[in-house]
Amino acid sequence: MGLPTVLLLLLAILTPGAAFHVPPAMKALSSLRWSASSTFRRTVAKNYSVHYIQQKVDHFGFSADKTFKQRYLIADAYWKKNGGSILFYTGNEGDITWFCNNTGFMWDVADQLKAMLVFAEHRYYGESLPFGNKSFRDSRHLNFLTSEQALADFAVLIKHLKKTIPGAKNQPVIAIGGSYGGMLAAWFRMKYPHIVVGALAASAPIWHFGNLVPCGVFMEIVTKDFKRGGPNCSETIRSSWDAINRFSRTGAGLRWLSEALDLCTALTNAQDVQHLKAWLSETWINLAMVDYPYECDFLQPLPAWPIKVVCQYLKNPSVSDAQLLQNIFQALNVYYNYSGQASCLNISETTTSNLGTQGWSYQACTEMIMPFCTNGIDDMFEPHAWNLREFSDDCFKQWSVRPRPAWIITMYGGKNISSHTNIIFSNGELDPWSGGGVTKDITDTLVAITIPDGAHHLDLRARNAFDPTTVILARSLEVRHMKQWIRNFYASLRKKH
Amino acid sequence: MGLPTVLLLLLAILTPGAAFHVPPAMKALSSLRWSASSTFRRTVAKNYSVHYIQQKVDHFGFSADKTFKQRYLIADAYWKKNGGSILFYTGNEGDITWFCNNTGFMWDVADQLKAMLVFAEHRYYGESLPFGNKSFRDSRHLNFLTSEQALADFAVLIKHLKKTIPGAKNQPVIAIGGSYGGMLAAWFRMKYPHIVVGALAASAPIWHFGNLVPCGVFMEIVTKDFKRGGPNCSETIRSSWDAINRFSRTGAGLRWLSEALDLCTALTNAQDVQHLKAWLSETWINLAMVDYPYECDFLQPLPAWPIKVVCQYLKNPSVSDAQLLQNIFQALNVYYNYSGQASCLNISETTTSNLGTQGWSYQACTEMIMPFCTNGIDDMFEPHAWNLREFSDDCFKQWSVRPRPAWIITMYGGKNISSHTNIIFSNGELDPWSGGGVTKDITDTLVAITIPDGAHHLDLRARNAFDPTTVILARSLEVRHMKQWIRNFYASLRKKH
C-alpha cells in the first residue's frame, strides 16, 4: 500500500519566449496510491517481459535502409491461445514501462478478455531512439519522428508478433491508448483496419486541430473545473493576473512577488513575469487534467479532487493584491508542496522532465499543431489570440522546422471520419482535452463515452475503491464493445474456414 | 477518323542481365483508331486546362521543406455545381496528358454524372519531377517516389481544389484509375475515405504481392489467351524456346536466327539469346494485355483481336525448328510490323520508352514487388522460379536499394480489406493482371466486376462500336455504383444541414 504504481500521462511543455503557448500539454508523470486491493495488481503489473524489434528508421523511403531497435513489452499471464485476444497499447510520448505499469485498465481486463498485453514504445521516446543519443541533435535526425512512422512501427510489430508467437496469428488485436496515444489508437484503426479490429481511444483530442473546435474550448473547460471547485475560485485566479501585473511594474514589486510566492529564482524582468504567468497557467491546466477522485502522487503527491482543495484558498477575488497573491501561493502549495518537502517553487518545472519533452516539443512543431486561445471572459486567463505565424517562427528557431497545421486533418480526416468503424472515444468531462475529443456517437460503431466525473483518461487507470460510478460504467461499456469486436472477429474467421 | 486518340497504359520493362524478370509490365503506349463517333469525343478529350500545385517533396518528414510542381488537368465542360461530382484520375506511371486523353470512359460518363474530370500526375512522371532532371540521379533523389507520397499528393490536391474552386467544396469525389493507377485508386479510398467517396479500380492487381496469389498465375493467363487464340498456338510458342536453344549452340545457328527473325542487331552470345527470349516473352505478354476487340495503334498498329491474328501463324508445334521460328517471325510481324514500316526487329524495345520506365523500374525495386514464375507446364514459357534474392541483388546493383516485399501488404492490407467500402474492382478475364486482382465480391460495397472478353482495363477506354456486350454491361454497372455513392454523399450532406 502506498507505493506508487500508476503513472498518469499528461504533458505540459513550456515554450519559453513565446507570449502564450498553452502547452501541447499532454504529458506528465503521476503515480497513484491505492486504497484498495492494489497489491495484487501491482504484482501482476510488473510481470512483463521486455523485447526489441528491428524497425526501419524510414518506412516511407528506401534510400537509407537503416534500422533501430524499438522496445516493446509483453504480459501474457492471462492470455489464452484459444479464443484469446491481444490488447495493444499504442505507446505515446514517453517511456513505455511507465505506460505499461500504469494503464491499469488493461491489466484489469486481461483475464476476462483472455488477453495478451503488448505495450509498444513510440519511436524517439524511452529506449526506442532511432539514432541513439543523437536522435534529437537536429531536424535531420528528428525527421522520422511522425505519427505515420509510429503507426507503421506498430503495424510491422503486430505482423511480427503474429508471425513469431505461436497461437497469436489468428487472434484479434485491439489498439488502446490515452491522450496522444489515444489519437494513435484511433488513427491506427482508421489507417490499418486490417491489423486491429478496433480501438479504444481514451481522452484523444483528435479534433484539436485547425479550426475543428474553437481554440478557446480547452481553457474554458479548465475554467469550468475551477468554477466547480468552489465559489469564486475561477474569479480569484482571473483576478490574479492583474495583481501580478501591478506588482511587476516596479523592482520592489517583483521582489515582493518573488518572496510571496517563495520562488527559487527571483523575478527580475518582464520576461520572467511572462514566464511566471505561463507557469501558473500550466499549473491550473495540470490540476484540471489530474482532478482525480482519489489521493495520488503527481510529481508531488496530490489529494483527492485536488481542485477542490486548491479552491479552498481561492474564495475571494476582491481582497487586496497582496492578499490575493498570498492566497494563490497557498493554492500552489497544494500542487507543488502537498508533501511539505519543497523548499521553494521552481517556475521552470510543472511536471517531470523525464518524459520525452524534446520529442513532443518537436512533434508539436510539425504535425501536432493544436491551436489554443483565451479571451479572459469565457475563461479565467489573460486574453491571448492563437498566432500561428509567431508559433511557426518559434518552431523554426527551436527546431529549424515549420509546422504544417493542415496536414493532420488531410491525413486523418478531421471531422469526416464516419466511414470508419469500431472506435470508442472516451472522454472525461473534467478533462480540458475533451473539448477536442469526440463526445457524441458518430455511428453505431464509432461511439463516444463520456465520463462526467472523469479527468484525463481516468478510464484507463486501474480500478480504485474511490472510482465514481460513471467511470466504472464507462469501463464496462468499453469491455462490452471490445468483446463484441472479438466475437465478430472469430465469427468471420469461422465463416472463412 | 483514323487519328490516334486513345492511349493505352500497359507497361513492360526489360531488366537486362536478369535471368528472368517478367516485367512489372504495366505500361506501354497505344493509340486506337475509332471506327465510330470518335470525332466528338476527340474534341471533348482535348478540352482540358493544365494546372500546377506546389507539393511537399516529403509529406512524411519535416527536415527538408522543399516543394515541387505537380501537374494536373481539369475538364469541366459537363460539370454542374448543383448536384455534380468530381471524377479524380489517380495518375500512374506516365505522362498525365496521355491518361487524360485516353481514359475515354471518364469523358463518356462526365455528362450523366455532371462531373468535373481531374487528372493528377503521379510524382516522378511526366512533368511532375520533384528534382527536375536530377530526379532519377540516385536513390537519394528517388527517395520520395512511393505510393504513399503519391496518395498524399492526391489528398492535398483534392483539398486544394475544394478550397479554391467555387462550388467544389461540397461535392463527392470518386477516384478512378487503371493498372497501377487502379491500385492507387483502391488504396486511396482505403487510406483516405474522408477524401473520396469511392473508387473504381480497373485491372488493379492489388494481390500480386507476397504469396497472396500463386506467382505463376500471370503467365498462365497469358498462355490461356494464346490457347484461346487458335489451335496449337500456345504449344507452338512453348516449342519455340527449345528451337531457339538448339540454334543458339553454334555461331552459325545464331546467325541463322538473327536473319530469320530479321533482328536489327545480330545475336552473338548466350546473353543475347537470353535477351531475345525475354523480349519474345514480353511480346506475348503485351499481346495478352492489349488483346482488344477492335483495331488499334499500339506503338505499331494492331489488328482487332491481335492474338487471333498472331495465332494464324502458330498452328503447328511439330514442324522443323527452322520452320517453327520462321512462323514465330510471321507472328512477331503482326505485333511489330503490322504497318509494314519496320525494317528490322529491335529486341531492346517492346513498348515505347517515352513513358516513365525509370520511375517504374525503381518502384518495382522498392514497394511494388510482384513475384512472377513459370513452370513450362501450366504455361507456355520456359520454367523460371521466382528468386527474391537475385531480384534484390539486381535492384541493389541498379538503384542501390533493396526491395521490401512485405511492406505493401502491411500497408494496404493484402487480402484482409473487408472493412473498407465503396470500391469497384474491375478485371478483364483476358488480362494477365486479373490473376492478381479482386475478381469476387468481398462485401456489398467491395464489388468485383469481371469482363469475360476484356483485356487490360478495357472498361476505362472510350466506348467503341466493337465493344463486346460484357464491357458495355460492366461500364453501366460501374456507373450505377458511382451514382449510388453520389446519392449517398448528398443524402448524408442533407442530413447534416
From TrEMBL, chains A, B:
Subcellular localization, as worded in the UniProt entry: Lysosome
Instruction: Tell me which positions the record assigns to the signal sequence.
Output: 1-19
GO process terms (BP)? angiogenesis involved in wound healing; negative regulation of systemic arterial blood pressure; proteolysis; regulation of blood vessel endothelial cell migration
User: What keyword terms does UniProt attach to this protein?
Assistant: Carboxypeptidase, Disulfide bond, Glycoprotein, Hydrolase, Lysosome, Protease, Signal, Zymogen
Q: Describe the reaction catalysed, as an equation.
A: Cleavage of a -Pro-|-Xaa bond to release a C-terminal amino acid
Write down the EC number.
3.4.16.2
Q: What Gene Ontology cellular component terms go with this record?
A: lysosome
Name the major location.
other
- A Gene Ontology molecular function term of the record: serine-type carboxypeptidase activity
Q: Which PANTHER family match?
A: LYSOSOMAL PRO-X CARBOXYPEPTIDASE (PTHR11010:SF38), PROTEASE S28 PRO-X CARBOXYPEPTIDASE-RELATED (PTHR11010)
Q: How does it assemble?
A: Homodimer.
Function field = Cleaves C-terminal amino acids linked to proline in peptides such as angiotensin II, III and des-Arg9-bradykinin. This cleavage occurs at acidic pH, but enzymatic activity is retained with some substrates at neutral pH.
Instruction: Give the family, as the similarity comment puts it.
Output: Belongs to the peptidase S28 family.
Instruction: State what protein this is by name.
Output: Lysosomal Pro-X carboxypeptidase
Q: Which gene encodes it?
A: PCP
